[in-house]
Amino acid sequence: MQHPNRESWLNFVAARMAPMFADLGAPLPDRVRIAIGFTSAGRRGKRIGECWDNRCSDDGHFEVFIRPDLAESADTMPMEVAAILGHELVHAAVGIPAGHGKDFRRVAKGIGLEGPMRATTAGPKFRTALAPILAEAGPLPHGRLQTRLGKVDEDETTAPKKQTRRHIKCTCAECGYTARTSRKWLNLAGPPHCPVHGAMAVDDADEAGEAEAEEETEEG
Questions:
Q1: Which residues contact 124 (CB under 8 A, 6 or more apart)?
Q2: Cβ neighbours of residue 173 closer than 8 Å, sequence gap 6 or more
Q3: Angstrom distance (rounded) from CA 198 to CA 44
Q4: Domain range annotation of the chain
Q5: Which architecture characterizes domain 6-137 according to CATH?
Q6: Mean pLDDT, rounded, for 147-160
Q7: Measured between alpha carbons, how far apart are the two ends of the chain, in Å?
Q8: Distance between CA atoms of 171 and 129, rounded to whole angstroms?
Q9: CB count in 10 Å sphere of residue 18
């Protein structure tokens, strides 16, 4: 089977997994949305999946997210994604307030997930049950998103650019009042003025650090 997008594939797999949950007395909710996207912790976070309570959704859906930069190979990716999906569906089935406690453990182990409950993996039982489902689902229309520094140039994403320049600190020698401004305005207009004591002194160490940052940017 060829799915037009990742969400179609994920929902197909979830629907085929539903009887596993029903057999454990923990049926899946009717309203569940599943997508591949970064969790609330963002790209730098460690969460590989996340399930939001249906009380957070304006139309009463549980919202499941699976991050797009999973590191496994293409051959193991579908089973890895299915295991993460299974983990998040357990949360939806037993309720978010249950956390990773005994109710979560019972259902997670019941569908074949193993390991620490906060970071489950696919056990033999899960792999055996999912193998025919994944075969029927066909290829997952997804390629790992490369997000690590060194592999992606800043020009290849609309993410905010890394800050390479900073404003220079200026201090009033009389009262300690501080302000920051750029080298450009220091050159054009001079240092800012303290409201009471007039012209402020430029912090030489801060200015040197700003210059080093510029040099690193130019060399890189």
A1: 112
A2: 197, 200, 201
A3: 44
A4: 6-137, 168-219
A5: 2-Layer Sandwich (3.30)
A6: 55
A7: 46
A8: 68
A9: 14
